[in-house]
Amino acid sequence: MARIGVFVCHCGENIARTVDCARVAETAAKFPGVAHAVDYTYMCSDPGQNLIKEAIREKRLTGVVVAACSPRMHEPTFRRAAAEAGLNPFLCEMANIREHVSWVHEDREVATAKAIDHVRIMVEKVRHNEPLYPIRVPITKKALVIGGGIAGIQAALDIANGGQEVILVEKEPSIGGHMAQLSETFPTLDCSQCILTPRMVEVASHPNITLYTYSEIEEVEGFIGNFEVKIRKKARSVDLNKCTGCGLCMEKCPMKKIPSEFECGLGARTAIYRPFPQAVPAKPVIDREHCLMFTRGKCGTCAKVCPTGAINYEDQDEIVTEKVGAIVVATGYRVMDADLYGEYGYGKYPDVITGMQFERLLSASGPTTGEVRRPSDGKIPKKVVFVQCVGSRDNARGVPYCSKICCMYTAKHAMLYKHKVHDGQAYVFYMDIRAGGKNYDEFVRRAIEEDDAMYYRGRVSKIYEENGKLIVKGVDTLSGLTIQVNADMVVLATAVLSQEDAEPLAQKLSISYDEYDFLTEAHPKLRPVETNTAGIFLAGACQAPKDIPDTVAQAGGAASKVLGLFSSDELEREPVIARVNEETCVACWRCYNACPYGAIEKKEIKDRQGRAVRWVAHVNESVCAGCGLCNAICPSNSVELDGFDDEQLYAEIGALSNE
Amino acid sequence: METDFEPKIIAFVCNWCTYAGADLAGTSRLKYAGNVRVIKVPCTGRIDFMFLVRAFEQGADAVLVSGCHPGDCHYNEGNYYARRRWTIFRKLLHFLGIEEDRLHFAWVSAAEGQKWADLVNEVTARVRELGPFTGYRQLMEKSRLTQSAEVQPLERK
Amino acid sequence: MSNKTVSDTASSFTAEIEGRGRLRLADCYQCGKCSAGCPMVDYMDYLPHQIVRMCQMGEDSLREKVLGSRTIWLCVSCETCSTRCPKDFDIAHLMDVLREMSLEAGLQHADASNIIAFHKTFKNGVEKTGRLNEFPLAIGYKLRSMDLFSDVTKFPKMVTARKLRFLPHKIKGRDKVKKIFAKCEARIRAKKRGKK
Amino acid sequence: MTKLGYYPGCSLEGTASDYGISVRRMARALGWELQEIEDWNCCGATAAHQTNHLLALSLPARDLALAEEQGITELLVPCAACFSRLVHANKAMQQDPETAREINDIIEMNYRGTVSVLNLIEALQKYAMPDIAGKVQRNLSGLKVACYYGCLLLRPPKYTEFDDAEQPSSMEDIVRALGAEPLDWPFKTECCGAGLSMSNTGAVVDLTHKILENARHHGARVIAVACPMCHSNLDMRQLDVSRRYGKYNIPILFLSQLVGLALGVSEKELGLKKHFVKATSIIR
Ligand SMILES: Cc1cc2nc3c(=O)[nH]c(=O)nc-3n(C[C@H](O)[C@H](O)[C@H](O)COP(=O)(O)OP(=O)(O)OC[C@H]3O[C@@H](n4cnc5c(N)ncnc54)[C@H](O)[C@@H]3O)c2cc1C
Ligand SMILES: Cc1cc2nc3c(=O)[nH]c(=O)nc-3n(C[C@H](O)[C@H](O)[C@H](O)COP(=O)(O)OP(=O)(O)OC[C@H]3O[C@@H](n4cnc5c(N)ncnc54)[C@H](O)[C@@H]3O)c2cc1C
Ligand code: SF4
Ligand code: SF4
Ligand code: SF4
Ligand code: SF4
Ligand code: SF4
Ligand code: SF4
Ligand code: SF4
Ligand code: SF4
Predict the structure, then answer these.
(1) Considering chain C, what percentage of its residues have pLDDT values greater than 90?
(2) C8 pLDDT band (50/70/90 cuts)?
(3) Chain D contact present for A202, CB below 8 A
(4) Are A242 and A312 in contact (CB under 8 A)?
(5) What is the position in ligand 10's atom list of the atom closest to the CA of C78?
(6) What is the CATH code for B9-145?
(7) What ligand is nearest to the CA atom of residue A72?
């Protein structure tokens, strides 16, 4: 038999001015299951709370309804009071008669009637409430960072310096990401490698960081605080423990003409190679697709010359399993293939190149040691055309979004080109200049005002070669003139795209991604580094096109979220979660498909002999966020949401029937 | 139309957006019609069609459902599901002989106190025009006469 | 020509174009790629993207500028612009629509009369016989355009090469073709009235 | 034996009779049977297209409907302008039921959208490649050919669905298979302004000149085309171009003529004598 106590608050005059509180209490006293009903001036004051506590003890109350302000205001207060008096806090509810009643209605009769109804609703709810217990989850204090670009490096270092352990997984043979390829960086023009390499070295030597390069995520299971991750360490064919990085093998390898990925095809590498001289680890890997030992079964030169016997052609992929409590995804981006635009002749004319290739030409460590030379004949180009928005903002053949970084790096390119080729002329075709950021617009203006870059407002329609010149046909919409430039070189600012494997990775992690496969944050403004899967965070260009300052800021944010999570030993969360009745579940998987959090699992029911009998849905408590979608759509009424189950809600609706 | 008819409207609102929006109307001391009774759910995705039927059965003259704006759902996509189902809800109600204007869907965010107040006023005015709802009860009466107990309204608690 | 236009967004010009052409003018973001690649741009009075822009602005004062422009008649429907437009805006089709409207409104540019004469002759021929015979086409065109001398030198060679036939071939279904012409023209007229 | 529906179009019966003749002759040499649509009408070409959009769909729609009635599933349309109008109408009716209804109502027929339209290059790709190389009778080696596509065969790609609209290569493949030497040149898709040939000669001469000059610059001995309008512009207008810009002498061959020559058909049978720029001297 329910014994519910109703406590009606006056809130001084705030409620009592329009609501007849005494009458509310009197009426409530007569509701079925109500054992006690009083009104009082300030329920949240100490005496008010004591009134409740005493009543719980003395009247042996099985539930409490406080008719007062919004639960957003004082629900924790009254639940705490109930708990102190020995009542399960989830048996205490609030009826909102202030924000929803007294403050919004003037007529005393109307307000009092509504207050009575709101109390009746909550009394009915409490009559059907069950005690609930907060869920506690232990936390494994070790973080996984996926991707070793500047985002992953920064996040790993911040977490490690915060005193927690980190595992950094990078799929390439070296960490560094795109930033390692850049020459100098806007808006300050500092040398990219000079600021990046010290951090790469720090990662390698940090006692709290375990580095897995040439490795990929195979499988992720578990939930916040308790993930279990399988990592595939790809066969490197070089024993990292034995190799000293002397480089003899690379010197002697006969396969010398392989286009270097790091140089964007402008330079060559060997089959056993290090992507770039400052690579971390500074040890090579054998590219089995090109190595003669693997393609033809003969060579073995590297093994012969290696002084430490580090070469191992028999090396196999290895799977390691790690337990972690949080994950930071920092897998970065990829640059669009300009082949898509036949009218620009990329791939056909060697002197039509991408922005990333131009970075390599500008880089002191690049294929031309930092001199700007044409790939076709090595001549210094005197007229260079830069075309912005190639593939970006293009609904027809590219992507509709703005890639955000190319306006800035194009201005940088125009500037650096002029610094290197004093008698050269840069032309930039742009649609809009997007330079929002500290010192960004000033930077672009400098390219125009001091380094004489000629900016034309319009797109380019066609590029073709004639007598060794690249004829660029564009337009300047501001003057209404068509423009032809007879250029020596053309640089295309191609769109920033998500990684090719972003979607499968997101699915492994059960995090969401947008239609372009960029990973999605939980809220664009208020939770920009969290995903909607608890315990998984985002950093860098895997979330959206981003420059280095934004990437580093987000990486720091992700790291501090991880450190915050690791600051306690256990997680506690509200017990509003779904539960499946395994007897009635018919395994239709509607809930499984609908749950926005992937909280529903498929569970096998076994008989006594351990044979599988049937499947049912099962809710993972740690993952369920309590939205109740599953409850509403289950065709067999087999899922109930604790705290908002069908019985409770029908009771609440029933409370409104005309007597 | 009857002038002294005071409609009874049941509102299902989500905890994160509309409930908070209604709170804001309160803290801003906006005044609006007193005909709505609020039932809080975690998300509009939690709403079962039978809740609406039950509300009408309990004498509601109209039902109002309101949650977060699309894309702002606290549960990411909960209200997308809800939205998709709303169209079906409408059709089902129509099938049961309930006028479409007795079911209102809206988006009210936590910042839209004024919108909540306006919404309540609009819906109340509209239902006042429509008059009291009797259709569903008549329908049930009819089915009770002609058919077995199975079609009777869900048993009351 | 005035360089000033008074904002008056309550114009029906934009809506009319969009309705006829199933186009959404707002799609164009004025990148100019169409103009940059148009083969006829050197002969035009407005660049193709400027035509789109004026259609977007839609003021009635621009109706005459657009429908009276040379550009819309010089466009040869090569589709270069539509093929390369990053917004998938079918600007070549817009030109079709504008020509149609220009003719109806009687606003066509003086220089366009040659082109229009050619089109008229062409259509008349097809309407009568169901097929086109280029000899009457050439003669008819020359009569309409009063451009009697150009290309005259080529006729003898064409005739000896038996590239020109003097008597038009008439198809059996020419009544059907005639009816198609009548129906299409009636419908376009009806659509135009509907707009007003 | 390959059997194809055939829509010659007005030009191939008139000013481009050499194209028409050579297509038929080439087809015979390849062993194709062409079934001409009975009682076909003019597709409307650019004139209808430019001034009445309903007419521009209805005229070709009648031809498609006739073809369908006559049991044709694949329709060879050698004229690029007709090809363009026919694929446009075809796609518009296949993709949009509302358009299909409106047009069927105008033509008072019921076209269901079952015909697929092929241009000459597509047909050769599909039914003559790659074994055409084995049938070559005449040695064309060393003949430098600039393949000119013009605009209507390729654009807009969403309708034509044929080759790469910016860097096409299918005609080159055929020319190479014939033993000749296709050139790489950037103007192969530039427009020659053919639609205005009669009415705005000045502009057209300029455009034609640019194309001829570009081809000559890249060493073209002949230009191969698959469009009667491109042909009449480049061939007939070459006199006007020469008058204004200095002498040009580049024979313009229809692709069907080139294929025919390679297969050993005589110059006369292929209508080569009808050209303004003498084209009979290209083979020794
Ligand atoms: C031409 C050009 C010039 C630029 N110039 C500048 C500039 O001057 N200033 C500036 O601020 N920004 C510049 N940028 C932008 C800059 O490159 C990015 O902001 C920055 O690199 C983003 O870092 P990131 O770590 O997020 O991504 P990335 O650098 O892409 O790093 C991602 C890392 O993750 C690894 N990875 C990917 N997938 C997986 C996986 N599944 N498992 C494991 N590892 C994975 C990758 O191998 C890579 O190492 C430029 C960009 C371009 C294209
Ligand atoms: C018209 C307008 C529209 C905008 N619209 C959007 C939008 O749609 N979306 C969006 O994302 N952003 C928008 N913004 C930007 C947004 O307002 C800012 O990004 C955001 O408010 C920045 O937050 P903040 O906390 O850094 O600074 P502030 O909001 O300025 O907060 C700083 C606080 O510090 C206090 N303070 C200052 N000095 C001291 C001191 N010495 N001691 C103690 N306290 C101090 C101030 O009183 C203030 O409370 C808009 C801005 C404007 C002007
Ligand atoms: S409990 Fe709420 S309503 Fe009551 S006095 Fe405190 S603040 Fe006011
Ligand atoms: S030779 Fe041996 S030790 Fe030296 S870099 Fe190569 S693998 Fe390492
Ligand atoms: S075995 Fe392979 S990697 Fe080693 S030297 Fe030979 S080709 Fe190079
Ligand atoms: S950043 Fe600039 S260049 Fe890049 S897509 Fe955006 S507008 Fe275009
Ligand atoms: S309540 Fe929501 S989050 Fe929890 S299992 Fe159901 S659908 Fe998933
Ligand atoms: S929706 Fe219901 S019946 Fe279907 S799987 Fe989920 S719990 Fe089981
Ligand atoms: S190319 Fe397209 S988007 Fe650009 S100006 Fe022309 S019509 Fe507009
Ligand atoms: S279709 Fe007309 S406007 Fe477009 S590029 Fe060709 S000539 Fe120019």
Answers:
(1) 33
(2) low
(3) no
(4) no
(5) 6
(6) 3.40.50
(7) 3
